[in-house]
Amino acid sequence: MNIPDTLNDGQRKAVEFDGEHLLVLAGAGTGKTKTIIARAAYLIQSGIDPSKIQILTFTKKAANEIVERVKATLPQSDGNSLSGATFHSWCNQLIVRFPNLFGAAAYTVIDPDDQLSIMKMVCGNQNLDFGKLRIKPQQLIDIYSLARNTKKSLTESLRIKLFKNKKDADTDYEISTIKPHVENILRAYQLKKGEQRYLDYDDLLLVVSTQLRTNPEARNILSQHLDYLLVDEMQDTNPLQWDLLDPFVSICKLFCVGDDAQSIYSFRGADFKNVHLFKERVPDSEVYKLEKNYRSTQEILDISNWLLEKSPINYNKKLQSIRGSGELPRLVNVSDEWQEANWVADEILNNFTHQDRTFSDHLVLARSQYYSKSLQAVFIRRKIPYVTYGGRKFMQAAHIKDLVSLLRIVNNPYDEIAWIRFLTFQEGVGEVRASRILQQVIENVEKDDIPNILQNAMPGEDGSKIAKLYESIKSKSDVGEMVDTAYEAMSLGLAFRYRRDWNEKRRGDFPVLKLLAKSYPTLGEFIGEGLLDNSENMNGMNVLSESKLNTAENKDHVIISTIHSAKGLEADVCIVLNVSPKAFPSAWSLDNLAEIEEDRRVLYVAMTRAKNRLILTRNTSSISAVHQRALPTNMDSKTDDADTYFLNDLPDNLVEQLIVEHKFGKVNDAASPNKIDLSSGMDFS
DNA sequence: AAGTCAGTGCTTTTT
DNA sequence: GCACTGACTT
């Protein structure tokens, strides 16, 4: 056995665990991923059929990485049938693979954009105005999703999402007035989803978990296909995901890893009870702990530990570095975003030219996607290659969705969103005509074939052209060819519609789309899983495009990521942007202890990504212009950020402080779209 | 009825 | 930067 040689005692004990179910509590940098990889490899080497091991993670990226690394440790093709997936894509696979069991095979998976479109359709011109409270369609989606993910009542979900979980007579009354209206709309939304054969992300989990809990036959069948379930990031699972995992306690053996101090998804319903109650809820289970940190130097862990100790929550955790001492973390004080961005660029370029570091040794973390926009502008101008993690996904880009809408129609003729998108794509067809055509399609789709309906609904050349196109795609068996056929028919229209940046940005995405499509055996799987594929996005502007699947791997680039997308990542140099008052904790969280503590964990996750050098930047002009504008209106009150700012009483000996002088020239206007907004120079104190 | 363009407001975090 | 709106043109 070659892998376990590099494991420490704790890791080895977990990897070679011989009992039924195990939870591994693993602090940041203690080799969580390594342990799960070694566990999979160990099981395979002990003779377990790799196809009976399922690895579950939260992102596709993490799943792929784990599977690849397991394979790398095994001789030749031993691990080829090992499967790693996100909870969502795994459920999708199960639904496709066992159509009779789950009865949802002919459905189309819809993404958040589609959900919003449906919700808007359902709301129509109905305004949800309740005095000062106006509920937007997106909020309705959020409420609906929270209720289903946490198994909470509508009343409680409304309370959490609209009233910050406040409990008093006034709030109770308001909720009771609002609730019936919301309920009506949500019911209409559910109905519409059903009619159009849609499954949203939550439905994927729900369909599978409901079936497994209520149907012994389903458990029976799955137990023949599964021996081990390995779950990563257990602290981020929510009650719905627990419902999904629970039946597997009697189907196979669970091996879960997680860290309560890194739980940062409660806005999505994550509940670290799933970690804390593991031993009580799972019979024949054990809990092991990993506490030795291999990633970071002690100085980096000191400040991370300090942050966690300040919390009212007791995490009972103090990371100890086995690597020993290194550089003191730096706290860099800047006075605006552009100065910050330029300082970061200087640091990286300096490390690159004088310190023998590559660009990919650097990880830049921001709280939100929005915040790194000015940094990206500076990187482009100063020619620092980068990729972004988190953010708009490839499949969500408008031009891709246009083409995919045609494929979706072929896949599921009940898919109204796809029909509307495809029909309005045709020249001379707007919303009104599209709805009329759609009407006819929906009325006849049961008894007639689509090409016929189309020709009736759109007399003349247009109709027959589309009808022919439909037939031609339908006749193809290879998904890549379907993309080709669709592209051939639509490329002129696409080029015109996106003429502004067609050649520069969009055109190159279609070969990538084809490549992606070719890797799926059926159209249904491509549409479902392709949507769920959280691949790195293509709007990193200066890298990627066609290169994604071949060359991107060996390119040297800085990674810019949201902290949420950075879980599991690590880097030699880690730079955390804007660790300023009103950002950590966020001004949005100020009157809610649970949210403040989640923000603390977010910062903790960010800090513990660093191996050798940790740099925190903060804006000393107290509050950035961005936040000024977006602040909630009732912010003026009680909570002084001086009380809550995480770095407030940071001991001097934990960091080295730097104050950046105003030495950088102004950024060129062309490269900095937000410049005027952001550096207005106004003092609002 | 559709398409275009300029002006406006808004942005936590993700499958 | 993005989505949405309203006024204008085709």
Automatic annotation (TrEMBL):
Coiled-coil stretches noted in the UniProt entry, renumbered to this chain: none
The protein's enzyme class: isomerase
Pfam families: UvrD-helicase, UvrD_C
Catalyzed reaction equations: Couples ATP hydrolysis with the unwinding of duplex DNA by translocating in the 3'-5' direction; ATP + H2O = ADP + phosphate + H(+)
EC number of this enzyme: 5.6.2.4
Highest taxon of the lineage: Bacteria
Keywords of the record: ATP-binding, Helicase, Hydrolase, Isomerase, Nucleotide-binding
One GO MF term attached to the UniProt entry: helicase activity
First and last residue of the signal peptide: none
Protein's name according to its UniProt entry: DNA 3'-5' helicase
Lineage, uppermost ranks: Bacteria, Pseudomonadati, Bacteroidota, Flavobacteriia, Flavobacteriales
